[in-house]
Amino acid sequence: MYKKILFFVLVVLALSSCEKDFLEPAIENNRDLNDIQDEPAFALGLLYNGYTRLPGGFSFNEMATDDAVSSDEDNTYSNMATGQWASNFNPVGQWQNSFSAIQYLNLMLSKADTVTYAENPAVNQMFKDRTKGEVYGLRAYFMHRLLEAHGGMAGGQLLGVPIMLEPQDASTDFSSFQRATFEEGMQQIYSDIEKAIDLLPLDSEDIGSESEIPDKYLNMDADVNDYNRVLGKTNRLRMTERIALAIRSRASLLAASPAFNQGTTTTWEDAANYAADVLDINGGVGGLTPDGLTWYNDGGVIDNLTAGANPSEILWRTNMPGPSSALEEQLYPPTLFGDGLVNPTQNLVSSFPMANGFPIDHMESGYDASNPYTNRDPRLMEFIVVNGSQMGPFDETIITAVDGGTNDGLNIVESSTRTGYYLRKLLREDVNLDPQSVNQQRHINPLIRYTEIYLNYAEAANEAWGPEGTGGNAYSAYDVVRAIRERAGLSANGGDTYLESIKGDQDAMRELIRNERRLELSFEGFRFWDLRRWNEDLSEMALGDRILNGNHEIIPVEPRLYSEYMIYGPIPYSEILKFGFTQNMGW
Hints:
Blueprint: H1 2-15, H2 19-23, H3 40-51, E1 68-70, H4 76-84, H5 95-111, H6 121-150, E2 152-154, E3 157-159, H7 182-199, H8 215-218, H9 224-231, H10 241-256, H11 268-281, H12 299-302, E4 314-317, H13 326-331, E5 342-344, H14 346-351, H15 378-383, E6 384-385, E7 390-391, E8 396-397, E9 422-423, E10 446-449, H16 450-465, H17 477-488, H18 497-502, H19 506-520, H20 527-533, E11 542-548, E12 551-558, H21 573-579
Helix pairs in contact: 1-5, 3-5, 3-6, 5-6, 6-7, 6-9, 6-10, 7-10, 10-11, 10-16, 11-16, 16-17, 16-19
């Protein structure tokens, strides 16, 4: 694989050039890395290759969990979940993409100090520092993805992946490559994050006075215009200190979790404090965005975002493309001209509590199985289309009952729901797919949302200090969970009685936090990874709701056939053959 990466790098370098070079080809039309010194745009192409490997959309790997199935039974996640997951068939693998990114980033890092970005010494140094900081932050991001997907028990110890700190080339001795321990991988992430923090601004925003210029650059006679040129708002969406801190929070939560906290030094206390580093910058519990539940369909905000700006709920996002209807085409029910691809399960629907905050199986919940959607957590209707829901630009009624008389009913046509539910979350319902009047809208794709970091803190703080302990921070797990549930509208007419009843019970609070994470981060690619790091059973049968004559029948829809060893993902079979890596147990 590494030789292939080198080949692609050389191809990119051969094709990369400025306008002058297109008009006046280099001698013998030959380019190599030595050309990088006086061509910053040429050099930065290496860095951009790291950015292009960030996730560009939603994976919907929930279709491989108890939260959803696919209306397409040949979907790769359905195949994976029903027994075909293997080291040579891995729809959730991160190996090739992440190592390709790291190769480009290492090439950039190897040349970063040799490039002349500007004649002004201060500007030149700011460019060098920013570029290296971006490389370190992005490299930590991709190392986390590798550890999450491919770290596992092998030969009696928890192993990670090879740690690549130098660019690989034709002279590299690949026979010496070995998997590092998981702990070594985590320490590399922490080291890269510290370097990124040291080199990057908190945010890419313009400043207004010289007092805001770091002494390092001020002593080189940098002025406000110099700073804004290199580190100001024109660089929004690039790696920053704030983003690097959030990546550290995400990685440390993985390392502290039951499946990965074996021979590792990261503690729950570490994970809580790393999350708090981000939350304190955001104003603590009071910084939780009131409209953070519906960040995906707030057209008034999304449509009017200035270049690179984020809504208050989004910490880091990808560049926003132009108007599109692709997501709605995937997810709308058939009567709205969609493919109904992702079908939430009854398992997930049952995890939404009642509006009074009690789980539906609690004796004080007031749940009525014959009217299962009445008096439920408001998030249920925000995220999921149930029988009788209204949806789309004209609030059309969606009937999922078998005898409902439309193609939206259970198993009526190929694109009909298999569970009795359709997905509403993530959609812009002002998109119209009617062939007579199709329109499109802008969509936003977050890489990190603040709600994730709040939930990271709640989980880690509860494990470290119990529900009401703070560990010296200004808030507890209980404080965060209360704010999240208040935002959701639970117990709007009184206190959250259920939360109050368990705030002294660490085990009950753990269950509640995990459930809140399941709901708040649903269909954003977390459930599969969360179940694995918690060492939870992956094989819960996916259930549906069959409605006939007004009666609800819970039905099995699709099995989940995972073995216990699949808590850890495999090393790709091709890499085992090429490099003789030790495979994770069971694979």
